[in-house]
Design brief:
This protein has 10 helices and no strands. The protein is mainly α and about 180 residues long. It has a single domain, classed as Hypothetical protein af1432 (Orthogonal Bundle). The chain is globular, with a radius of gyration of 16 Å. The protein binds zinc ion.
Length: about 180
Amino acid sequence: MLAAVRLISEAAELAARRHNGMARKGRGDEPYINHLAEVANLLAAATDGADAELVAAGWLHDVIEDSDTTREELAQKFSDRVAALVVECTDDMSLPKAERRRRQVIDAPKKSASARLIKIADKISNIGARIHADPTGEERDDLLDYTGWAEQVVAGCRGGNSWLDTKFDDAVRTARASL
Ligand code: ZN
C-alpha cells in the first residue's frame, strides 16, 4: 500500500515536470497534466485501485512521446512493467500522422491487456476534450474525425474491462449528440 502510494505520487510528479507548459488539444487549451490526471483516474476507477503500476503508467503514458524521457529512465525510477506499458502507448513520431493513426488501429489487438486499458482511457479523455457546447465547423469536423478513428482503435482494445468499455461508449454517444 505504501509502495503503491509512492509509485503513483512519483509518477504524477515526473509527468507534471516533463509536460510542464504543454497544453492539450481541445476545449480551452487546458494544461496537459489535466489529460494525464484524467487518464490515471479512469484507470484507478476501472480497476478499483487494485493496480498501482497501471495508474502510474496512466500518468506517464505520453511522457516518452512528448519529452526526452527514455524507457530506461522509467524502468529505473518505476519498474520494468511501467516502462513497458508506456512504450506500448508510444507512437513512432518519425512517421506521418496518418500512418501513426493507421498503426494504432492495426496494433491495438496486439497490445497487452493493461496497455489496451490505457488506450481506451486515453480515447475517452481525448473525445471529452473535443466536445464543445457551441462547436465551430472546424471543431465539429475534428470531433467527428477523432471519434470515428478512436472507435476503430478501441474496437481492438475492448473486452478487458466492462466499466471502461461503457465509459467509452458513453463518451462516443455524448460526442455524437453534441453535433
Ligand atoms: Zn494521452
